[in-house]
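Cross-posting from the chemistry board since nobody answered there.

I work mostly on the small-molecule side, so proteins are not my area. We synthesized glutathione and want a rough idea of how it might sit in this target. Sequence and SMILES are below. Is it possible to get a predicted 3D structure of the two together?
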Amino acid sequence: MLTFFYNLAPNPLKVALMLEETGLPYTAVPIDTRRGDQHTPGFRAINPNGKVPALQDGDTTVFDSNAILLYLAEKTERFLPPDTSAARGQLLSWLMFVATGVGPFSGQAVHFRLFAPGDNPYARKRCDYEARRHWQVIEDRLDDRPFLLGDAYTIVDMAVWGWAPRIPAMLGDDRAMDAYPNIARLMATIDARPAAARVAALKDRHAFKTEFDDAAMRSLYPQIFAPDPV
Ligand SMILES: N[C@@H](CCC(=O)N[C@@H](CS)C(=O)NCC(=O)O)C(=O)O
């Protein structure tokens, strides 16, 4: 039995999708990051980085969402491209591109637009620009193929699915998806899958804290309250 530590943010949800796609049995353990569950010693022993998702599989512990996607894909031998060196090169490249570019810039774009204290025009501009540029790379990649690695649905598409529904909110732009019709098509394809419906049901399983009060800010953005760097 797998144990999946999650909340309802993009990185845990893409792992939830993979778990549901594989049909592997798992126990879902909510980590309420607005309440500070990610900072407890018990959870830090599982993920020293203090973030969700994390996964335990017997004696094996995996953290970081795309590492978990790859772990589960290799465990089940599913949702991977053909077993060739060329295809593996593409798999690793796109998986890391999402992990190191799409996710972080999208997250920072919303952070500097909505949550960062003070006025940070350059930080906002850089993150918004880079988030849009990264999403455009994904959009262009889908110009002539249904999925990111070609004809088959893989964990790379799941990694993108975690983030893409939030593009309008992250960019503060209700019309943002107009620029990304290929991504919208990919999202519709994945949303139509039964596994995606089961992930939606996961959202009703636990009442996560909704208030963005001072305690939540301290849990999520401790740097706001830390001394300024010298
Ligand atoms: N690189 C990590 C990032 C994980 C991450 O940032 N998780 C967010 C939710 S999407 C989180 O746990 N935030 C709580 C916090 O930062 O304290 C991954 O891909 O899993």
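Reply from a structural biologist on the board:
Welcome over. Reading the output above for you: Strands lie at 2-6, 26-30, 54-57, 60-63. The radius of gyration is 18 Å. Happy to explain the token format if needed.
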